């Protein structure tokens, strides 16, 4: 049965003081099936489905014993890990305040703080076998600058992973297309048996984000964070 335009394209009346960009964002949220699914399945954000789709494809979460979630706010990825690996120890970190999640320890601090890596490993109680990073820098509106700022976070997360992961562990991080990422890929290819790019269906078509999935960790770098291998 054909649906009317009113049913298929939910729109908002533009408030007098609402910016056009805010209007577009609100309309996109209302028309986004992943937003509805997140509410129906009690996930804190639609981003949870990006991890579920990556996990369905690559088998990342099942069997994980210790997991680090970098950029945990608002908590959707940690919720996925909690449901799919209920016995895993999970520690997340974010500069933003994050509402508590049962079974997850959350640190409110900047991952780029020199004390953050030690604090994460101490809270986790040992080396992780899965490091997740959904971190992205706050945008300034200049595409190249925004890309470089976010990729600096991705590279920091990757170095953290190769210094603390258990053998055969995995690393997943969000990045954005554009610029030069050769150093990051070279680092991952040296230390992981498999390095792939993926764009899960839950990632919006118009978004330039992609995910790097590195699996089969070969061995740690000499660690700056203690617990040297």
From TrEMBL:
Family, per entry: Belongs to the class I-like SAM-binding methyltransferase superfamily. RNA methyltransferase RlmE family.
Task of the protein: Specifically methylates the uridine in position 2552 of 23S rRNA at the 2'-O position of the ribose in the fully assembled 50S ribosomal subunit.
Enzyme class: transferase
Protein name: Ribosomal RNA large subunit methyltransferase E
Annotated active site: 174 (proton acceptor)
Keyword terms: Cytoplasm, Methyltransferase, rRNA processing, S-adenosyl-L-methionine, Transferase
Major location category of this protein: cytoplasm
Bias-annotated ranges (Basic and acidic residues): 1-12
GO cellular component, as recorded: cytoplasm
Every Ribosomal RNA methyltransferase FtsJ domain range: 43-217
Gene: rlmE
Disordered, as annotated region: 1-25
Species this chain originates from: Aurantiacibacter spongiae
């Amino acid at each position: 049965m054909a649906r009317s335009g009113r049913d298929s394209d939910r729109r908002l009346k533009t408030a007098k003081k609402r910016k056009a960009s805010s209007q577009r964002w609100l309309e996109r949220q209302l028309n986004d099936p992943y937003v509805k699914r997140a509410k129906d399945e009690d996930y804190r954000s639609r981003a949870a489905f990006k991890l579920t789709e990556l996990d369905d494809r690559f088998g990342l979460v099942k069997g994980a014993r210790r997991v680090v979630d970098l950029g945990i706010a608002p908590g959707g990825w940690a919720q996925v890990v909690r449901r799919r690996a209920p016995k895993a120890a999970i520690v997340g970190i974010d500069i933003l305040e994050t509402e508590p999640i049962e079974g997850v320890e959350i640190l409110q601090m900047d991952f780029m703080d020199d004390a953050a890596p030690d604090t994460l490993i101490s809270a986790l109680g040992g080396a992780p076998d899965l490091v997740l990073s959904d971190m992205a820098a706050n945008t300034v509106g200049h595409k190249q600058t925004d890309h470089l700022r976010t990729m600096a976070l991705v590279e920091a997360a990757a170095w953290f992973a190769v210094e603390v992961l258990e053998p055969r562990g995995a690393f997943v991080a969000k990045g954005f297309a554009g610029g030069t990422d050769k150093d990051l890929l070279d680092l991952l290819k040296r230390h992981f048996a498999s390095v792939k790019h993926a764009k899960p269906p839950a990632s919006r078509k118009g978004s330039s984000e992609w995910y790097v999935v590195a699996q089969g960790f070969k061995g740690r770098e000499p660690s700056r964070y203690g617990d040297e291998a």
